[in-house]
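Homework help board

Subject: predicted structure for assignment chain

Our instructor gave us this sequence and asked us to write out the predicted structure in C-alpha cell form, then describe one feature. I got the C-alpha cells but I'm not sure how to describe them. Can anyone check?
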Amino acid sequence: MIVNRIEVTPIQEFTPETGGAGKVSFITDTGDLIFDRQIKPGREAEKRNPVLAFVSEAMRQVQRMPEYRISKSYVKFAPGVLPEGFAA
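My C-alpha cell output:
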C-alpha cells in the first residue's frame, strides 16, 4: 500500500501545552487508512510541527496493525508525502 497523500483534520486545536485531537488520513489508490489520534503535550519536534505529531501518532498505530507486523512493507509513502522532520 503506497500512501500518496496525508490529510490531518484537527478536532481540538493543538497547542504544545495542551496537546490536541484530530483525524489523520493516509490516502492511497486503493482506499484510505483513517486514524482518530489524541496528541499529548510534549516532545520538542512536535512543538514546532503539529502535523508531525499527528502523523507520528498515526504511524505508531499502523505499527500495531497485524498486517504491518507481518510485512513491514505493508505501508509505504510516496516521495515527499511525509512531513519534514519525520524519522522513518
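Reply (TA_rk): Your C-alpha cells look well-formed. For the description, you could write something like this. Residues 2-70 form one domain. That's the kind of observation they're looking for.
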